[in-house]
Amino acid sequence: MMPLVLMAGFLGAGKTRFLTDIIPELAARGTRVRIILNDFQNARIDAARLGELDALVTPLNGECICCGSLRELLQTLYDVPPDPGSVMLIEANGATETDELLGHLTTDGRLAHFTLPLQLTVVDAARWQKRWWHNALERAQVSTATQLFLNWTHKLSEARRAEVEASLRETNPRAARVDAAGYATLLSDLAHEAQDDATRGGRHGLRFAAPAPLGEGEVRRKHEHPFGSASLPLPALVDRAAFERFVDGLPESVVRAKGLVRFTNEPGPMFVWHRVPGRRGVRLDKSWPHADAQPTALFIGVGMPIDLLQELVTGLASAS
């Protein structure tokens, strides 16, 4: 069997960044890595950040894997061949509701080539429970976790960190704290133990009620929270200063923004860009995109003004 890990965490918490840290750690321990990467509309954006690393990445575009894209996720897992000594990591998008998804991953008999799922939730410690009406979703993603990774802790005062730790313990007293190196050791050991094991039981103490199976052509229920997404093409080359102003000027209803971009002063490389509300500026990462990748902007939020976003992109083209 292969260890099966669901990676959750709110939009912008740092899930893909954690993957870039843990993949080399697993490789150093002789453990191969398979990744299913789910995102709104264009999972290739984050997949481009993992292109240089030693991992087999399968982008899964569309909706959340707990509802609209659940069937595609399960079919992808069914099709994975036995690969002893490797681990399967599923990076769920930031709006995923984990409880029912874990029910499917735990009880589906066609996933017998995987262990019972572990869940690692990445927590943005600097913004924990500061998301207004999204706080309940953030807590729910923590409540089902078997392990937690606290990100952005360097931004916290001692008092704020103690407050966050106490809140996390109250939300989920069972979950262990891990870092990339420690979690890689745990998964590598589990991969070694599970490679000759033909039973799914006994891997951890969490159990989930079996959800109703999906009927032919059925799609799992939609979220109660109203996240939406929009993907707009960017100019082939943009002025860096104009692009930074464009990102800073995005409306508050955009909870997460990211994409691919090339700059006029450095037209060769394509960067993955991303911006999270509550943080200043834009972050740029090197990328190894597919040959057909084009500069793009992906916006995720609630009640976003699409016409305004289109105007901002058009203005960016004029400035470039």
Automatic annotation (TrEMBL):
Keywords: Chaperone, Hydrolase, Nucleotide-binding. Gene3D superfamilies: CobW-like, C-terminal domain (3.30.1220.10), P-loop containing nucleotide triphosphate hydrolases (3.40.50.300). It comes from the Bacteria. The keyword Hydrolase applies. Residues 227-317 form the CobW C-terminal domain. Pfam families: cobW, CobW_C. Belongs to the SIMIBI class G3E GTPase family. ZNG1 subfamily. This is CobW C-terminal domain-containing protein. The lineage of its organism: Bacteria, Pseudomonadati, Gemmatimonadota, Gemmatimonadia, Gemmatimonadales.
